Amino acid sequence: MFQLSERLAALSPSETLAMSQKSNELKAKGIDVINLSVGEPDFFTPDHIKYAAKQAVDDNFSFYSPVPGYLSLCKAITEKLKNENNLNYNTGQIVCSNGAKQSVCNVLLSIIGPGNEVIVPAPYWVSYVEMVKLAGGTNVIVSAGIEQDFKITPAQLETAITPNTKALILCSPSNPTGSVYSREELRGLADVLVKYTDIIVIADEIYEHINYVGQHESIAQFDDIREQVVIVNGVSKSYAMTGWRLGWIAAPQWIASACNKLQGQYTSGPSSIAQKAAEAAYTGSQDCVKIMRDAFHRRRNLIINLAKDIPELKVAIPDGAFYIFPDCSAYIGKSFKGRKIAHSADLAMYLLEEGHVASVGGLAFGAPDCVRFSYATSDENLVEAMKRVKTALLALE
Ligand code: PMP
Ligand code: GLU
Predict the structure, then answer these.
(1) Measured in Å, how far apart are the chain's first and last C-alpha atoms?
(2) Among 92, 107, 112, 161, whose CB has the most other CB atoms within 10 angstroms?
(3) Which of 393, 381, 390, 394 has its CA nearest to residue 35?
(4) Is the domain of 254 the same as that of 363?
(5) What is the pLDDT at residue 15?
(6) CA-nearest residue, atom 2 of ligand 2
(7) Residues 129, 68 share a domain
(8) Which ligand has its closest atom nearest to the C-alpha of 205?
(9) How many domains would you assign to the chain?
């Protein structure tokens, strides 16, 4: 009898990708679905980046790259960290991978094993908890509700720490909530972490440039915990390059070396062409980043106004990323033609099947009362989608 490994049997599929897939299946059947499920910019990759990739093909960047990425890309990343974030790293501390998804997984597989606990603030990005499971570790979920803008406090962090705590995963700007930790809030968390020098913070900063409240704040800026911080970032969101698959870490040397060793055995360096494209993204004009951020900002204001018009939806105003994460508890427990909506995953499925709008239920993000809508799409789509959501929600009784 064929049997999957225990590791695989315990793994849940990615809900974000699953909802997007389901939406595409309905579209293929001719149903006019508006997809607000998967989180990816709707913009095309900027021309100067595409040009660099074409050039790389012609220049025969067709051989294996060094496992952590070309030195020129690692250098472009250290310069970005210096210029944009005022952080000094050397190129040996950078490891480039097949998307930030692999970067997070590399770090977890490198430092987490059975018996180790990882503190994951909820709402969390769906993949963190599954990656911790893959590594054999234990998730310790710390919940932060809408009333605290979905951000954990230093006291909550300290309460969750045990002698087995090995890491904290902090995502700011956050997927799925869009919340952004301020410098003071990060300092508060750092004041706790400084007392536990063997805890590593995995700071997922993939939405760094999609921030509507000003300069990005990294927890790595605090020198007293700097040796405990791994920054995760990449080009997917800032440069509309989700399909190119290029993410990276900036890490203490021992973690960078471990990820290099791990990656050398199971994927090698990321695509040579994607690396040359990413290098152009970091060294070229940053106008495209601002243009896309401004568009997301305008769409955020639009979708917030539309969502606030839906009775009994509790909507926080997100400061970054491109998601809204309303609390829909008023509609959970209601029914449509005898079909009971037991939780947010049911609600997302109902919105897809009856309202033809794809979203992702908050259950997969550790927030069973909420639903995530990505607003990385056109104004027309947002207006029509929220009209459909309103009609579908009001049809519940
Ligand atoms: N972190 C967060 C919070 C994300 O939303 C995503 C989604 N793409 C990733 C990491 C991974 O990004 P990628 O693998 O496309 O670089
Ligand atoms: N991170 C995006 C999302 O949350 C892309 C899908 C994924 O990789 O999970 O929708």
Answers:
(1) 47
(2) 107
(3) 381
(4) no
(5) 87
(6) 39
(7) yes
(8) 1
(9) 2
| Shared-domain flag, residues 336 and 270 | no
Q: The whole model's pTM is what?
A: 0.97
pLDDT tens for residues 309-368? 999 999 999 999 999 999 999 999 999 999 999 999 999 999 999 999 999 999 999 999
pLDDT < 50 positions in the chain: none
The rounded Å distance from CA 191 to ligand 2 centre is 31
Ligand 2 atom with least separation from CA of 99:
8
**How far is 252 from 41, CA to CA, in rounded Å?**
31
Tell me how far the alpha carbon of residue 199 lies from the centroid of ligand 2, in angstroms.
26
Which ligand ends up closest to the CA of 243? 1
Q: Per this entry, what is the length of the chain?
A: 397
> Ligand 1: distance of its center to the CA of 45 in Å?
16
In the block, tokens 């692999």 appear at: 102
Ligand 1 atom closest to the CA of 103, numbered from 1: 14
What confidence tens digit (pLDDT) does each residue in 282-292 have?
A: 999 999 999 99
- Other CB atoms closer than 10 Å to residue 298's CB: what's the count? 11
Domain span including residue 173: 47-283
Ordered DSSP codes for 178-228: -----HHHHHHHHHHHTT-TTPEEEEE-TTTT-BSSSS---GGG-GGGGGG
Residue 18: predicted pLDDT:
87
The pLDDT of residue 13 is 85
Does residue 125 sit in the same domain as residue 273? yes
Is there a single domain that holds both residue 305 and residue 270? no
Cβ–ligand 2 contact at 122 (below 6 Å): no
- Ligand 1, atom 12: nearest CA belongs to which residue? 100
Residues of the chain above pLDDT 70, percent: 100
Cα-to-centroid distance, 41 and ligand 2 (Å): 11
At 184, which CATH number?
A: 3.40.640.10
User: Is residue 246 a contact partner of residue 274, using CB atoms and an 8 Å limit?
Assistant: yes
Rounded distance, CA 274 to CA 385, Å?
A: 34
Within this chain, do residues 267 and 159 fall inside the same structural domain, yes or no?
Answer: yes
Collapsing DSSP states into helix, strand and coil, what is residue 273?
Answer: helix
CA atoms within 13 A on the CB side of 144: 26
What pLDDT, on the 0 to 100 scale, is given for residue 386?
98
Last residue in a domain, options 228, 261, 283: 283
Residues with Cβ within 8 Å of 174's Cβ and at least 6 positions away in sequence, in order, are 123, 125, 150, 180, 207, 320, 321
Q: Is residue 255 part of a domain?
A: yes
Q: Are residues 148 and 184 in the same domain?
A: yes
User: In angstroms, what is the span from residue 16 Cα to ligand 2's centroid?
Assistant: 6
